[in-house]
Amino acid sequence: MLFRTIALAAVIAVAASARAEPLPKVELSPVVEGLDAPIFLVAPDDGTGRRFVGDQTGKIIPLTPAGAASQPFLDLSDRLTPLLQAFDERGLWSLAFHPSFAGNGRVFVTYSAQRRDA
């Protein structure tokens, strides 16, 4: 019982000291607009500083320090299973860069493809 009392006192002391400091101010600013369901943000190890944001609807948009590109890096929207309006877990899922992406430009994507005829 003594241990629980000491532990509770320690938690109360930490909580009290945390409240004494003002919370840091945080500002958010959009980096890309016009996406329906952004699902990931990845950066290749190629020294360019680029990042790529993937939208569940199948588009991968490059982001540079200057802002979002006007054209997608990759658009798989015509290959995806049609998505439901209300909610769907299908679509574009992920993007991974080949370890030698800077030299070979290879990427790997996972997505839900349309059914193929047998």
Describe this structure in words.
The strands form 2 sheets. Strands 1, 2, 3, 4 and 5 form a 5-stranded antiparallel sheet that branches. A two-stranded antiparallel ribbon has the order 6-7. 19% of the residues lie in helices and 26% in strands. The protein starts with a helix and ends in a 7-residue tail after the last strand. The model has no long low-confidence stretch (mean pLDDT 81). By secondary structure, it is α+β, with helices and mostly antiparallel strands. Strand 1 and strand 2 form a beta hairpin. The relative contact order is 0.15. The protein has 2 helices and 7 strands; from the N terminus they run αββββββαβ.
Which key phrases capture this entry?
118 residues, alpha+beta, 7 strands, 26% strand
How are the elements arranged and paired?
Blueprint: H1 2-20, E1 38-42, E2 51-55, E3 59-64, E4 67-68, E5 74-75, E6 92-97, H2 101-104, E7 107-111
Antiparallel strand pairs: 1-2, 2-3, 3-4, 3-5, 6-7
Nutshell version of this structure?
This protein has two helices and seven strands, in the order H-E-E-E-E-E-E-H-E. With 118 residues, the chain is an alpha+beta fold. A hairpin with a 3-residue loop joins strand 2 and strand 3.
What fraction of residues sit in β-strands? Answer: 25-35%
**N/C terminus separation:** 68 Å
Spell the H/E element sequence.
HEEEEEEHE
Q: Roughly what percent helix?
A: 10-25%
What are the segments in which pLDDT stays under 50 over at least 5 consecutive residues? none
Task: Give the overall shape.
Answer: globular
Structural class: alpha+beta
Specify the number of helices: 2
Mean pLDDT value: 81
